[in-house]
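Quick one:
INPUT:
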């Protein structure tokens, strides 16, 4: 069985997509980011929760505050990327559930009254949303450079608050010269999928 999505779109979103390590200096506009969010907000999550929070790092001052918290190998490319997004989980996402999940507004208290349960759910579902965001960046014709090599506590203290957990930082822009490393291997279907 073939996929419904045409081959060019499959390639854009998956086969040809890689982590970008260099970008042109072409700006990424607020309109582009809005279009990305307006697409990826429809990705499924448990209870339709929406714990992902996005902090866009645009100004030189904010960039100077972020770069020291990046792992050494991620500093130069983060300093040079046209746009950087801090993707975080909002551990108080449950406050929105009565609106976002009207079929069962009691989910807020029935499942998420305790902070540890909220943090687990926020991390998982914001990670799903972060993956949708990366695919959305690709759908916008841009390249994404997602990174987990950073000091989460430092980033949280610098840009967020105690109710937010930074998960991934994404450099965004048009890919520049030498942006992509060669494609690394992937596991085969039969190495991953088991039927029981």
């Amino acid at each position: 069985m073939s996929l419904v999505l045409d081959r060019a779109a499959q390639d854009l979103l998956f086969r040809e997509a890689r982590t970008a390590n260099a970008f042109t200096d072409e700006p990424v506009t607020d309109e582009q980011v809005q279009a990305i969010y307006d697409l990826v907000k429809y990705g499924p999550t448990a209870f339709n929760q929406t714990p992902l929070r996005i902090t866009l790092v645009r100004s030189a001052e904010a960039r100077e505050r972020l770069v020291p918290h990046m792992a050494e190998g991620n500093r130069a490319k983060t300093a040079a990327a046209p746009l950087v997004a801090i993707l975080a989980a909002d551990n108080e996402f449950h406050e929105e559930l009565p609106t976002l999940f009207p079929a069962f507004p009691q989910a807020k208290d029935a499942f998420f009254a305790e902070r540890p349960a909220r943090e687990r759910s926020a991390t998982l579902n914001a990670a799903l949303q972060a993956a949708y965001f990366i695919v959305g960046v690709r759908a916008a014709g841009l390249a994404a450079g997602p990174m987990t090599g950073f000091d989460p506590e430092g980033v949280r203290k610098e840009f967020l608050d105690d109710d937010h957990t930074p998960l991934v930082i994404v450099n965004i822009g048009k890919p520049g010269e030498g942006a992509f490393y060669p494609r690394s291997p992937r596991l085969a279907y039969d190495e991953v999928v088991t039927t029981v």
